[in-house]
Every structure is written in C-alpha cells, then in structure tokens.
Design goal:
34% helix, alpha+beta, single chain, 5 strands, 4 helices, 137 residues
C-alpha cells in the first residue's frame, strides 16, 4: 500500500477533524495527561500544532499526526505530540514526513512513546536518547 503525507493548513483543520479524531483518541489512550482530545483540537485549530495526514491511493485518511516545534540554541525540534493510524510506521512514509518537517526548518524529530512503540519507531531510525521521569506536584 502506497501512502502519501499531506499537510493540512490551519484553515482546513475543522473540516478534516472528523477524519482524524478517532486516530488521536486512540493515541491519547496510551499517553499521559498532558492534554485532552479537545485541547489537541484547539492547538491544531489555533495553529500551535501542525496537522499531517496519511492518505492512501483512494485519498482516504488512514493516519494522522500532530506536530509542534520548539527552538533551542542548536536545533529546531519537531515533536510528534500525537500520531495514530494504520500502516503508518514505515520508512517511506516517515521519510516523506521528514521532508515536510525539514521544509519547516526542523533539524531533528522527537517523540514520547511507550515501550512497544519505541521498538516500532526503531524501524524508521529513532533511537532512545533519554528517559523521561516526573513527579506530580
């Protein structure tokens, strides 16, 4: 199956939301409590995050990602805030997503994932760089 990555401009997030909502809801079931589905939708609608969709040859949405960017002294980092879908962890599709992220100035990609997803992301070149720990206050 050949998939394409398409950027969804902020002004079309509301129209695209019904096609990606389930993928993001599923992704949030395995994430922490940093944001809710409604908050993710708000970040996308306000343009704080970029929406990318994976579409098949019939132009059906089969996956989606929400990306935000941060700037440090040495890097512009694209952070995958949410990602979900079918057949989307593969080198070809990830390479297409990276091409888009490079056009937005990114020099690296980060993602916070659970252990099973860490193994999957190794297939596309990710490596573990740190372990995140927290204390709730």
């Amino acid at each position: 199956m050949t998939l394409e990555v398409q950027y969804v401009p902020t002004e079309y997030v509301a129209q695209t939301w019904p096609y990606v909502e389930t993928y993001f809801q599923d992704a949030l079931e395995h994430s922490g409590d940093d944001y809710t589905l409604d908050q993710a939708r708000l970040y996308l609608n306000l343009g704080h995050w970029d929406l990318l969709v994976a579409v098949d040859s019939d132009k059906q949405v089969v996956g989606a990602g929400a990306i935000n960017f941060s700037q440090s002294a040495n890097h512009r980092t694209a952070f995958i805030a949410l990602m979900g879908g079918k057949f989307i962890i593969n080198k070809d599709l990830f390479g297409r997503m990276c091409d888009f992220l490079k056009q937005k100035g990114a020099t690296r990609v980060h993602a916070q994932v659970r252990p099973s997803m860490e193994r999957l992301t190794r297939r596309v070149g990710f490596k573990k760089v740190s372990t995140l720990v927290e204390v709730k206050l």
